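Input record (one chain):
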Amino acid sequence: MRKCYTRPCNFHYGIYATKLIQRKKGLPLAGNSKIAFNAIEVFWRKKNGKTKNKYYLIDNINELDKESYNVVQNDIKKISQERKDILGINFNKPQIMGVLNITPDSFSDGGLFFDESKAYDQAQLMINNGATIIDIGGESTRPGSKTISAKNEWNRIKNTIINLKKKISKNTFVFRYEKIICNEQRERKWNKYY
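The corresponding structure, as predicted from the sequence alone:
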């Protein structure tokens, strides 16, 4: 189990951030030269369940013991490197995610989008307002709701996903419920729609 954790801190933005990076006095956050950090906070988990922490300027991390230094260096590399695209979505900038509940008894919207055309229109509205990811679910998770089969859930959402995918190829539709995601055979079958 890990005992040492790293958190970037002391952030700077814009031209000043770029200058810090150029002078090797700061590091980019997620590869973004317009956001830099020049300090870290290191946390150590102790045997008694307590933690110890200490702040370090980037220039001073060589003061760490060898084991902590190696962990922190690896963490800093991950924190400062540019993020890779996932399914064509660039995570180097903030993304908006819409949640569409296609259920008759949704906890958040009371079933407003259970009708197929209303679900499609709502997803389209989210996309038009900047959503790059739509999380589409067909089973309510409200307190007291009843579990439905994977097949019933898929039947609730499939036409909305298929129709959206035909018209908007840049968006990724996420079917979030683990009973579907964990069933590899169904996932392969249904991925043709994603």
